[in-house]
């Protein structure tokens, strides 16, 4: 694989909600000196509605359509891309992700995540309680999908964000980045 300079790599972060895609993504982007594109924020800005408003007013399928278009628009740009937790659900999105390495899965258990995001009203899929149960159901369906797209898996639950960041940077340097 051809080695790239820092501003030519486009790492994509995937994983369940609460795994730290946006916050790790922000730090990673700062280190690589490239922008962060947060897919949820990108959609919110484009549509002019919050995620809960989109889910309530237009429904989850409409949100997934927007998510697929947004993903298509941003993949390949010189940026760190933090996806929403469900971006891997559609086959077409998984195919796109596989065409745009490196894809990095921040893997965390439902128990770890539930402690961080219990009852988050900005996350429609868990807003009404039973967070752990819902995350367990999501993990069962999604873990194999995340795994099928991932070029690198970081055990987020066992690592502090600083260590997660170091681990991703090491992976990128060893596999994607020119060592100048
Ligand atoms: C979702 C995750 C959310 C957001 C939407 C749906 C999901 O993003 O896209 O609420 O299906 O897991 P985060 O993973 O950034 O919370």
Q: State the low-pLDDT regions, or none.
A: none
**SS summary, helix count:** 8
Largest sheet, spatial ordering of strands: 2-3-1-4-5
Strands, total number: 5
Provide the residue-averaged pLDDT.
94
- The radius of gyration is 16 Å
- What characteristic shape results from the CA principal axes? globular
Largest sheet: 5 strands, parallel
What can you see in these coordinates?
The chain is α/β, with parallel strands linked by helices. 52% of the residues lie in helices and 10% in strands. The chain has helices at 21-32, 39-47, 51-58, 60-74, 91-98, 110-117, 131-149, 161-175; strands spanning 12-14, 36-38, 80-82, 103-107, 152-155. Helix 3 packs across helix 4. The two termini are 17 Å apart. 35% of the residues are buried. The model has no long low-confidence stretch (mean pLDDT 94). Shikimate-3-phosphate binds at residues 17, 21, 40, 51, 84-86, 123-125.
Task: Compose a concise summary of this entry.
The chain is of the alpha/beta class and 180 residues long. The chain has eight helices and five strands; from the N terminus they run E-H-E-H-H-H-E-H-E-H-H-E-H.
């Amino acid at each position: 694989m051809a080695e790239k300079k820092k501003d030519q790599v486009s790492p994509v972060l995937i994983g369940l909600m609460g795994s730290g895609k946006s916050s790790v993504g922000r730090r990673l982007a700062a280190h690589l000196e490239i922008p962060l594109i947060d897919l949820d924020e990108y959609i919110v800005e484009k549509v002019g509605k919050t995620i809960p408003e989109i889910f309530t007013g237009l429904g989850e399928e409409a949100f997934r359509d927007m998510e697929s278009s947004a993903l298509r628009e941003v993949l390949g740009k010189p940026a760190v891309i933090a996806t929403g937790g469900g971006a891997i659900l559609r086959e077409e999105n998984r195919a796109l992700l596989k065409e745009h390495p490196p894809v990095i899965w921040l893997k965390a258990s439902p128990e770890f995540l539930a402690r961080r995001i219990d009852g988050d009203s900005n996350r429609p899929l868990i807003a009404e309680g039973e967070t752990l149960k819902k995350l367990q159901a999501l993990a069962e369906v999604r873990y194999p999908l995340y795994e099928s797209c991932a070029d690198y898996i970081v055990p987020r639950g066992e690592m502090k964000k600083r260590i997660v960041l170091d681990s991703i940077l090491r992976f990128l340097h060893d596999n994607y980045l020119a060592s100048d």
